[in-house]
Request: fold
Amino acid sequence: MTRMLVRRLLAGLLTIACIYAITFTMVVSIPGNPFQQGQHRLSSDVESALLARYHMDNNWLYFWEFLRGAVRLDFGPTFTYADWTCNQIIAASLPISMSIGLAAMLIALMVGVPIGVTSAVRRHSWLDISATTLILTGISLPTFVTGSALLIAVGVKLQLAPVGGWGTLSHLPLPAITLSLPFMAYIVRLTRAGMIDALSADFVRTAIAKGASRQRVIWRHALPVALLPVLSFLGPATAQAVTGSFVVEKVFGIPGMGQHFVNAALNRDPGLLLGAVLVFSTLLVAFNIVVDLLYAALDPRISEAL
Amino acid sequence: MNRLRFTRSRQKAPVIVGGLLLFGLLAVSLGTLEHAIQWHNVQTLTGAIRHEPSLEPVVPLTAFVSGDVGHASTVTKLAHRATSWFGHDDLGRSLFYRVWPGLLVSLAIGLAAAFIAAVVGTTWGATAAIFGGRVDRAMMRVVDVLYGLPYILMVILLKIALTEPLAKLFGGRTVGADLAILLVAIGGVSWLTMARVVRGQVLALKQQPYVEAARATGASTYYLLRHHLLPNLVGPVLTYATLVIPQAILQESFLSFLGIGVQAPTPSLGRLAADGIEAVNTFVGFWWLIVFPCLVLVIALVSLNFIGDALRDAFDPKSNQAALLS
Amino acid sequence: MTETATILETSVLEIQDLSVSFDINGRRVPVVEGVSLVIPRGKTVALVGESGCGKSVTALSVLRLLPEPPACVDSGRILLAASTASSENGTVDLLRLRDAALRHVRGARVAMVFQEPLTALHPVMPAGAQIVEAIQLHENVSQRDAKTKAIALLDDVGIDKPDQCFSAYTHELSGGMRQRVMIAMALAADPEVLIADEPTTALDSVVQAQILDLLAKLQAARGLGVLMITHDLGVVSRVADEVSVMYAGHIVEHATTQELFANPQHPYTVGLMQCVPRITANAPTRLTVIEGSVPRPESKPAGCAFHPRCLLARQRASEPEMDTIALEPPATTSVPRRCAQAASTITSSGTPELREISTGHFVACWETADAHH
Reply:
């Protein structure tokens, strides 16, 4: 177990390094730099002095300088927001995105799994078909449409929740529900497929032959096996959810972290972009390891192979 | 193992419904194409600015037909009546004649992205699986790492990075160049799942007794590829390609929301929905600007997902197994 | 035999005139037709046949374990005798029980052992937990008592370290151990009938023998009625008191094990026996095979389903004055007309019915039965 953990951590570090290298390459190869943004143009002397100040005139130097800072958890200055450092921005926005993301994953699981199970058990019934259609409609609408619809219906018409912003618990449900929809749809599909496989397995027949009730067979025997693929999906999905979504943040006016990925890219702000990507990939690696450990705990066949 | 099997009529229903809906949408799009090209961008219909949908046209026939109004054909008259069915946008343009070509643009983006994903993903996945060993590990490591990148960020970066070189290639920022940039950006991140699926399939096929038997009799790699692997890959690749189309269309809508999607005045469903959201968020009155593009978007995407899911079920022998609990 | 009244004095389970069909691409295809079996209390009845003959379908339909659809039980009765322990419930027809009542039969009164223990046991539930579950589903006992009973059961089925096995997962056990766990689980709620569906097919021959001995021992100790499904005549001779031979959905011969091996009557049974190597034979004789294969249920030949492969039919066809009919090409031989024709003058389907040729020995064959008249 310890050996597996060490191996996973090393592989994770390698993944993070690769992600950093690829993102860095893309960042420096896109045209423009943070000092060319906005209305006023800097003189070329000032611009090159600024680039030199932040080591951006030499890609290799910048690569190593940023990495050196990042290892010490210092992502340097941002050029998108005056007087802020990347660390301050991430520290301010990550907790917000985390709470929305975790709530969204919880909702996605608690609604998605039962729907997936039910539609697998009553395969091709009208219940299955309507659940599938509803889910498909949900993911066929862009998040900015579903989010706005929720906002208008619940926030404006019914006045059950604040129309936007952040600060109290009542700000949480609408963005969390909006963010959960695409994940929920995926969880429903994975659960349904897993349950269909599990229900036609021999061990289900054995359970019925033992005299287990229908509900017991479904929830106690088939579901634990069917949920394994859902579990592997949860790692990357949670990492994605807790680092925020640009659309959800924009629609609900939330100062989360998702916007920084997009704004940093649009503003050619390499420090903030690389910092955000490093946070994302670290979380991704961490959640994947957690999922692996959970997987091993749930499936003895895997824990032996590790 | 690759025979299409729809064992029950209810299993067929989604494919039929999806196919019919998609066919209907396409028919309307293509049928109105001629007028749409002419009218999607006409802003001179003053008085129609943000006019709500109505069965009667709000713009006079003289504004719609140039020349002799008296000799307008029945088709032209009908086309004229349709201008106000979906209402008009903030520039007075007929939403009807923007939604239908928008669907075609969206579908084209989706299809092209699916094609890119299919070609790149199949080549990548099959190569990895056929060579196996180190090559396989290295190639799949690349896929793993790319999976680890924030998806939408990659699309944005690719889009920004590709804009200038591709525009140069096309001789300026034409509509074609614009679409090509979008396609490469979206297709460039869509092939990852395809590569994994194809690799899994090829690895499974390599273990099949008949492939081993063919190899034992001295069949060449080309022969195996041509006669055993490729025919068996058609099903899964087609299935996943079908599922890439809706994803790509949604990604384009997201880019439109950011303002870096299809460039105005070219309509796409995503662009129209994003524009609609802007209008609705400021003033809740203009519902049609969001409802009609989204309605068409949902119908198209649900149909595509229906077809894709049903294909996947049909190609996967496991999903046809009868279950004891039903 | 098909008209046996519902008298369950000496028998514990009776299958009467069972017909099962499958929906294959919209067509109803009969897979089991008019099968009757009696399992006497404390005896072992074997059901033998090649794969695809319908023997597993027969076994699974007893506890209604066939997926419906595509399967459909068209007719028949499966009678379970009033239990000796609780006399309040009389004879029940399992095919007419509601789900809740059926659950109290499954595992508790009729238990099953399946062919492939690796897939039939739960992959992520420890062996002990599966046995405990089987106990607690039918008995109101505490977790601790159930565990004690489960370990005792594991000991009963000959597992060396029952404590260790209790917490082991399926994939950690050997094939023989898995099947022992499966048997322990089947016996957990003290059933009266055990249905074993090819319990030794997936095992190697040494373990096979051990498992068969174990089953025989447990059966004697507990007075179980056993229905043993197998394609292996070696298994039959080892454990069975009575044998039914099945071909293409029909029972073609039934007798006591001794009688059947000494005096096989149906040409199919004769063929099956000639396929088995005998160590007792003095000179090494060539094994004969039955030509062809079991017909697919959707394309069963008219008349006696066995006639295209039947040596006796060909032999009898060469006799003078025999009314024969030529087989369809590519076959070049003829068989007696009554074997091959679905003549309404004989029976509706043209299938020969079981006839008693000597006490307790039934055969379904036009030619054999005729020879004894």
Observations:
- Chain A touches chain B through 59 residues (CB under 8 Å).
